[in-house]
Amino acid sequence: MTGSATQPIEVGGRTISPGEKRQFRYSVGTSFHGDPIDIPVTVVNGENDGPAMFLSAAVHGDELNGIKIVQEVAETYGPPDIHGALVCLHVLNVPGFMAQQRYIPIYDEDLNRSFPGNPQGTMAKRLAHTIFEEFVSKCDLGLDFHTSTRNRTTMYHVRADMRDSDVERIARAFGTSVILDGEGSNGTLRKAASKTGVPTVTVEMGRAHRFQSTHLERALHCVASVLAEHEVLPDRPVSWPGWTRVVARDGEKTWLRAATGGLVDMKWGPQPLVEDGEQLFTISDHFKDEVEVVRAPSTGLVVGVLENAVAYPGHPLCHFVSVDETTADIIRDDIERGEFDVYREGGFQRPEYGESGEYEGRDPLS
Ligand SMILES: [Zn+2]
């Protein structure tokens, strides 16, 4: 690893000196039209020694909140401000971003199932390989920003492998109220990076296809907190959240699914805290002959939820996390203070969902 900012940092085929900030585009591949696929990069190499952190966005091309966060971070910090280096990868899946879709267009490959990549592999594997070799592997830690996929939304939270103490340190310093613990699916950037000694967490927030200002403001604060924890910003305090719920890898979180297919009515919200037995959804046929009622299995949080109002049998309706009464009380106070109001931001009617793991095959979330 590099990361000593009194040394030059070598990323993307360039050498950036201590005290230097450089913005450039780096070609990671070629389109079928013969054009280069360039990712925009900002490197800030601080005047003082410290770790190198990457921030990446839009590994899923339509997940825009992260792009705005990376843009703001790249603008905000200069070499005098930091001890270490920031490697800002503004858009990873450029073809997906151009088409405003999640996967790499045409063959619908998931870049976030392709890391650490393969120079002899498919398009996605090649892109992943170049990104990984030229940037990620040169850093000491990382934050990868996501949103839910279209037709869903997700609570602001972090996903991290909490068995890895370096990953745990980042996750806790980031300071979301909910951390979903797990190593992540194979091929995700965070799993591949963490396995090769670059501890990385995924940050999830909101919806695809928009900038959600409340999430963005909060995220910039959280990024600064991680930088403080790692002494990239040595004079800034780490801001711990009022409460943190680490959801274990087994149990505690569950998908509530539709037993029957049909039209989905959301009966809960707008806040994500629901009580044991509370009616969450009804699923009905056109004639309302059959109405299935889906209830909360305990007091808990709806971390993410379907936004589309139709479901096939077995379709996940929401991602549900149980909480104990003490935590529930703190969340109620947070709700009073408007902490979760952003859940309704963006003009949608009701809260929604997002996550991985339990899906067979391609994970449509995260
Ligand atoms: Zn994503």
From TrEMBL:
CDD domains: M14_ASTE_ASPA-like (cd06251). Residues 49-228 form the Succinylglutamate desuccinylase/Aspartoacylase catalytic domain. Pfam families: AstE_AspA_cat. GO terms for molecular function: hydrolase activity, acting on carbon-nitrogen (but not peptide) bonds, in linear amides; hydrolase activity, acting on ester bonds; metal ion binding. Keywords: Hydrolase, Metal-binding, Zinc. Residues 346-366 are annotated as: Disordered. The keyword Metal-binding applies. Gene3D superfamilies: Zn peptidases. Its cofactor is Zn(2+). It comes from the Archaea. PANTHER family: BLL3975 PROTEIN. This is Succinylglutamate desuccinylase/Aspartoacylase catalytic domain-containing protein. It comes from Halopelagius inordinatus.
